[in-house]
Design goal:
Blueprint lengths: L1 H7 L5 H8 L5 H14 L7 H9 L1 E7 L1 H7 L7 H5 L4 E3 L4 H26 L3 E12 L25 E7 L10 E3 L5 H7 L18 E2 L6 E5 L6 E3 L5 E11 L2 H8 L11 H8 L4 H16 L2
Antiparallel strand pairs: 1-7, 2-3, 3-9, 4-7, 4-9, 5-6, 5-8
The structure holds fe (ii) ion.
Length: 300
């Protein structure tokens, strides 16, 4: 009996968080985000996109990378081995020079928006990681025992200082398996309607009107707070090509290594550089990190 009770109040359990806080995140991350939203972010701004992001955790950005993507889309290539192995999520490769030039152009265009985000997060924003990939069709869309590419509803286990920008590398319609998000304000209704218990345990036939699909044109982009909102990758009829840009809010004196990442290295796995600040592994570290942000806010 005691053992069971202990399991029940395990604050690290995501099932516990879903049951009591309607979020699939470690409890301490939920707490961090709550206080971060209350005391750190700046919402005294008249910027529709940022306010929408704050409210819903998702916003389509009024910016198009159509020209940039059109210029490079025929240069993407796929390692045949992945296809032979039947992998459903495969990296889209570009040669080194093309990678660097493409990301340079995208970063330059994004800069004014990143500045606005720095104001919102009250913190410097760095881009530590970029991924380009293709999702293929599979027949397990309704099978919750098998997941091929984050196609079950989940939240990313990070603090809200970790966000993502998605750029469409093709026109994406309903049948192309767009990213699906549950806006923050729909979270409770979503848990209820989908009888959501865990990533592999919910009713796939819940109320679809609670879900927003990121359909759009080539070059369109959206910002979303993957730790704050439930989301999943839709299953395409054929395939979907996407670019993901990670953004992290880390005070400057800790983030120099990240802001100095060479553009060519952005496509490597740089998780080790930003894990400490966006996915800390102990309660003490999370609390300390919160006070780092708070101090930053108070000292201007
Ligand atoms: Fe995710």
């Amino acid at each position: 009996m005691n053992l069971k009770l202990y399991k029940y109040i395990n604050l690290n359990s995501k099932k516990f968080s879903v049951k009591f806080f309607k979020q699939r995140l470690p409890f301490i991350y939920i707490l961090f985000n709550y206080f971060y939203r209350k005391f750190i972010v700046n919402i005294n701004i008249e910027d529709k996109e940022i306010l929408q992001f704050h409210k819903s955790g998702f916003v389509k950005i009024d910016m198009s990378f159509k020209n940039e993507i059109e210029e490079y889309k025929n240069k993407f290539f796929i390692n045949d081995q992945y296809i032979k192995d039947g992998i459903k999520k495969v990296p889209l490769e570009l040669n080194e020079i093309d990678k660097i030039n493409l990301i340079l152009k995208i970063k330059e265009k994004l800069l004014p928006f990143v500045k606005k985000l720095e104001n919102y997060f009250n913190c410097e924003i760095s881009i530590p990681d970029v991924t380009i990939w293709r999702n293929y069709n599979h027949n397990d869309a309704l099978n919750l025992d098998k997941e091929h590419f984050s196609n079950h509803f989940h939240q990313d286990s990070y603090l809200m200082t970790y966000s993502k920008i998605f750029v469409n590398l093709m026109d994406i319609n309903e049948e192309d398996g767009p990213l699906e998000v549950v806006p923050r304000e729909n979270r409770n209704s979503f848990i209820k309607s989908f009888n959501y218990k865990d990533r592999h345990n919910y009713n796939v036939l819940g109320d679809k009107s609670l879900i927003k699909k990121n359909v759009g044109k080539i070059g369109d982009c959206c910002l979303f707070s993957s730790p704050q909102i439930f989301h999943r990758a839709g299953v395409p009829k054929n395939f979907r090509d996407n670019m993901q840009i990670i953004l992290v809010a880390i005070p400057k004196r800790y983030s120099e290594k990240i802001s100095n990442i060479d553009n060519a290295k952005l496509f490597d796995d740089n998780y080790d550089l930003f894990q400490k600040f966006t996915k800390p592994y102990s309660i003490i570290k999370v609390v300390k990190l919160f006070f780092v942000h708070l101090k930053y806010k108070l000292n201007g």
